[in-house]
Design goal:
By secondary structure, the chain is of the alpha/beta class. The protein is built from 23 helices and 25 strands. It has four domains: 217 residues, no CATH class; 175 residues, no CATH class; 58 residues, no CATH class; 98 residues. The strands form eight sheets. Strands 1, 2, 3, 6, 7, 12, 15, 16, 19 and 20 form a ten-stranded mixed sheet that branches.
């Protein structure tokens, strides 16, 4: 196996099994062999002999070892182990009763404990303030329960193997829809959920003016009747254009909510006789009925290029068949933590989702710019082939093993042999945050987020550049490589506009996400969606300067082009935006120069080592520098206190948020403390953090006046988190929020 340094680190941190002392019990090759053996063993259930099973095992192993395709993380982690929970995502129903709500909460915890993500539609919950007949009380509404689910995820993820991730959606005509759209305004609140507003075609026609009447009724889900105004008793109506405008404003400012185009999803629902789609999995790529699951894998398109520089169509067909058989085996091999999921997934619709990664890699290898008609034409050819071949393989599996149990009444119940499928869906463009690192591939169908980035060397204190391997290959082959060039690119993430050493054709091929106009992002999503059974996970990354109108246009274009949903992220729109990754000039991390005169305030605070005096000076109304004094000159206490103060001043001058600094300092303990209860001072660093918070009038975790700071990966501490594929991941270690 050929592994990059990133892949090796990711395998070791996230996947390889260890003994209680932390020693590795397997290598990456051992892991893939374990998975291949486990998946091939399913063939025994269908009468295959041992020699054939061994051949299939080797076929599975080689496809993964050569990085032609990779299954989702739960399969890599759990196959052949005690958990044996191999599905990536689930949708759970939330019924309008205490019993139903807390049953779903329990089921969510069980799923997330084993590494799965969950999606919830809160549409059925009665609005806040509505009457509850059984208790003569009033309902607290869907947002209050959304927060309970979020808090439970926070607790579960502390002991799980993967961070819990959720989708929370609410229908546009729910009485609490305006509160839902605004419920993530405060940074850090509801942090374990992606949010989407579910909208209909009727709503979008009102938004675009195709329907000249923009008003619509709110509907109480308790009785499916128009929601009355408490004072007048008349039906409450909202203006679709105004509601859409609020969605756009919040998406522009915070990245949430996204939108689910529910009618488009249900047009392609393969089993409408079983139920209608209400929501999706956490990243929006998998519309699922309640209690459905999906097993995912992704083909690495960058590996399907011949030496002559052409797409290897035959190899792509062959590996597609291998991956579909693999995924159908995953369904049978998986252990389901909830009986309802087993009945709906294994004994019902048997959905799988084969997608792609390495799309930008493929384009670069073929010499095709991402933002070109040629790229869209190729996308159509490639995804249509994958979709067709996946269906053919599913038909062959059905001939061997039987059609999906819910076949009768499905869209495939046509009497035609070519529709007798084993799996209700076969293709999905899913997030590939971690597995793309294992495979050495670009993420999903996303353009490169950065050509190089700075890996934080926490112990050595040196930022080390990590460079796109294809860019390295081009630069060395064509003679424009230099360490100075790589350092420049690593500071901003893209090829500097004034860099003359890089040929124009290379600059075109290696455009990054923020250099590509939003329309090209959406057109790529729409083309892949055209040939994908389920949906497409993609982030429409926008420049910092993008306007609200551009977000508005992107959402409308996505609907008109047949996308099933959309997620946007404007650079810099969240407090923890990364500054050493993405678009920006080389000055972005350098400290601001100090004005000649500054105004500040001083406070005194008792510490275990004596009285501490802290002064915070401001510039432009924002904290700019900090001074701290304690004890007698010449002592070690004075030295480390001054050192902390200097580093805090440097961070403030570089734009790091006060709340981030406070969060790092508060709670640091020493050998003794001063005071009692929540006001107890545990150490000098703890005292400095509290003094800074007091003087800046912020608490740890609250908005510190608009300061932005680097979002260093919370897991490895050496990489920076970027937002792609409807999710967030660390380019250095593969940490993912999903």
């Amino acid at each position: 196996m050929e592994l990059s340094e990133n892949a090796r680190i990711t395998y070791e941190r996230r996947y390889l099994r260890k003994d209680p002392e932390g020693n590795f019990l397997e290598t990456p090759a051992d892991l893939l062999r374990r998975v291949a053996v486990n998946m091939a063993a399913v063939e025994r259930e269908y009468g295959r002999d041992e020699s054939t099973i061994k051949e299939i095992e080797e076929e599975f192993y080689q496809a993964m070892a050569k990085a032609y395709f990779m299954p989702n993380s739960p399969t890599l982690m759990n196959a052949g182990g005690d958990l044996q929970q191999l599905s990536a995502c689930f949708v759970l129903p939330v019924d309008d009763s205490m019993e139903g709500i807390f049953t779903s909460l329990k089921h969510m915890a069980l799923v997330q404990k084993t590494g799965g993500g969950t999606g919830f539609a809160f549409d059925r919950l009665r609005p806040a303030g509505d009457r509850v007949r059984t208790t003569n009380g009033v309902a607290s509404g869907p947002i209050s329960f959304l927060k309970i689910f979020d808090a439970a995820t926070e607790a579960v993820k502390q002991g799980g193997t993967r961070r819990g991730a959720n989708m929370g959606s609410l229908i546009y005509n729910h009485p609490d829809i305006l509160d839902f759209i605004c419920c993530k305004e405060k940074e850090g609140e509801i942090s374990n959920f992606n949010l989407s507003v579910t909208v209909s075609d009727e709503f979008m026609r009102k938004v675009t003016g195709e329907d000249p009447d923009p008003f619509y009724d709110l509907i109480n889900p308790r009785n499916d009747e128009p929601y009355p105004d408490p004072e007048t008793g008349e039906s409450v109506q909202l203006n679709a254009k105004e509601v859409f405008g609020l969605i756009i404003q919040k998406a522009w400012s915070k990245g949430d909510p996204g939108i689910i185009f529910i009618d488009q999803m249900n047009r392609f629902n393969p089993t409408p006789h079983i139920g209608k789609y209400e929501t999706t999995n956490p990243c929006g790529e998998q519309p699922l009925l309640p209690y459905e699951a999906c097993c995912l894998a992704s083909l690495n398109l960058g590996r399907f290029v011949t030496e002559a520089g052409e797409v290897d169509w035959e190899k792509l067909r062959r590996v597609t068949w291998t991956a579909v058989r693999f995924l159908d085996n995953v369904i049978d091999s998986s252990r389901y933590v909830i009986d309802e999921i087993a009945r709906m997934h294994k004994e019902g619709n048997r959905k799988i989702g084969l997608g792609v990664m390495g799309w930008h890699d493929l384009l670069v290898r073929l010499g095709i710019p991402y933002d070109s008609e040629a790229a869209l034409d190729l996308a159509e050819k490639i995804m249509s082939l994958i979709n067709e071949e996946a269906k053919k393989c599913s038909v062959e599996l059905a001939a061997e093993r039987g059609v999906l149990p819910n076949f009768e009444g499905s869209i495939y119940d046509t009497g035609k042999a070519e529709d007798r499928v084993r799996n209700a869906t076969r293709t999905t463009i899913a997030p590939t945050g971690t597995i793309s690192i294992l495979a050495g591939a670009s993420s999903g169908i996303e353009p490169y987020f950065s050509i190089a980035f700075l890996r934080k060397d926490v112990l050595g204190g040196v930022d080390l550049p990590e460079v796109n391997p294809l860019f390295l290959e081009f630069s060395r082959r064509d003679g424009f490589y230099s360490e100075e060039l790589i350092e420049k690119i690593a500071r901003s993430g893209q090829i500097p506009a004034d860099e003359t050493a890089v040929p124009d054709y290379v600059r075109e091929l290696f455009k990054t996400a923020h250099e590509i106009e939003p329309g090209w992002h959406i057109r790529h999503q729409a083309v892949f969606q055209k040939y994908t059974d389920n949906a497409v996970s993609k982030t429409i990354n926008l420049k910092r300067e993008a306007t609200v109108e551009e977000v508005n246009d992107a959402y409308i274009l996505a609907w008109k082009m047949g996308c099933k949903g959309i997620t946007v992220y404007r650079d810099g729109s969240r407090e923890k935006q990364v500054l050493n990754i993405g678009v920006g000039d080389d000055e972005s991390l350098r400290p601001s120069s100090r004005p000649a005169t500054l105004v500040g305030h001083t406070t005194r605070i008792k510490t275990p080592l004596g009285n501490l005096f802290v002064t915070v000076n401001t510039a432009g109304g924002k904290p700019f520098e900090l001074f701290a004094q304690i004890g007698k000159a010449g002592s070690d206490v004075v030295a480390f206190t001054e050192g902390i103060a200097r580093l805090i001043s440097l961070a403030l001058r570089c734009g790091v948020g006060v709340e981030e600094i406070v969060a790092q300092l508060e709670g640091i303990g020493g050998y003794r403390s001063v005071g009692f209860g929540p006001n107890r001072i545990m150490s000098v660093p703890d005292a400095i953090g509290r003094a800074l918070a007091q003087l800046a009038k912020v608490k740890a975790g609250e908005n510190g006046g608009g300061h932005q700071s680097r979002e260093i990966c919370p897991d490895c501490g050496s990489g920076a988190v970027i937002r792609v594929e409807g999710c967030a991941k660390c380019e250095a270690c593969g940490y993912s929020e999903c």
